[in-house]
Amino acid sequence: MSKELLNYCFVDGQNLHLWTTTDGWILDPFKLRVYLKDKYHVSKAYYFLGYVKDENNALYTRLQEAGFIVVFKKQMVDMTSNKKWNIDSDMIFYVMEKLIEEGETFDKVVLISGDGDFKILLEYLIKKNRLEKILFPNKKFTSSLYKDVSLILKDYLIHNRSKLEYKKREAS
Q1: C-alpha distances in Å from residue 155, one per residue of 102, 111, 131, 135, 149
Q2: Edge-first strand listing for the sheet containing 7-12
Q3: With the CA atoms of 77, 29, 33 and 45 taken in that order, what torsion angle do they form, in degrees rounded to the nearest 10?
Q4: Intra-chain end-to-end CA distance of the chain, in Å
Q5: Suppose 42 and one of 36, 75, 122, 129 were both cysteines; which one would form an S-S bond, judging by CB atoms 3.0 to 4.6 Å apart?
């Protein structure tokens, strides 16, 4: 009997939200979590967000209820200026930390982002045979840095929009 793969997923939440809504749809985190588990054998899914806002508490709760481990960017309490809350370096560090500390407990990584800042991480994961798939939220705004990545290792969430899209329930 063969061992079932157990993979970890790392989601660039801001990139995912921005580029799916730009394509005109809202992703359902419950459907995404089931999709990741069923299609890519994801046992743990980490969802990275830029910063905490009280008005987004319902979103944070929904992500956790869907089965995501929500990771917020570390920030200083007195930061009040408008800054880009870029989580890329934090996310890359987190993936590498998981590979070092828990590398024996999972097989491969699924990455969700179209941001070119992850290219160096992707190259490392490919070299070490630890990349299961990179999933791009949007075709139009995916970094051109990924054009040389094998088609076997990449896919677009839009291809599964019907399975992943949030649909409002109609009143009966």
Answers
A1: 26, 11, 13, 5, 11
A2: 69-72, 42-49, 7-12, 109-112, 131-136, 154-156
A3: -10
A4: 48
A5: 36
Rounded distance between C-alpha atoms, residue 82 and residue 79, angstroms = 9
Residue type at 123 in one-letter notation: E
- When pLDDT is averaged across residues 83-103 and rounded to a whole number, the result is 87
CA 31 to each of CA 22, 68, 115, 164: distance values in angstroms, whole numbers, following the listed order: 19, 12, 23, 5
Helix axes 88-102, 119-127, angle to 10 degrees: 20
Q: Using CA atoms, how far apart are residues 93 and 28, in angstroms rounded to an integer?
A: 27
Q: How far is CA 34 from the centre of its chain?
A: 14
> pTM here?
0.88
Helix (H) or strand (E) holding 66: none
Domains of the chain: 7-76+83-164 (3.40.50.1010)
Cα–Cα distance list, 80 to 57, 84, 88 (Å): 20, 12, 21
- Residue % of the chain over a pLDDT of 90: 69
Q: How many CB atoms lie within 10 A of CB 88?
A: 18
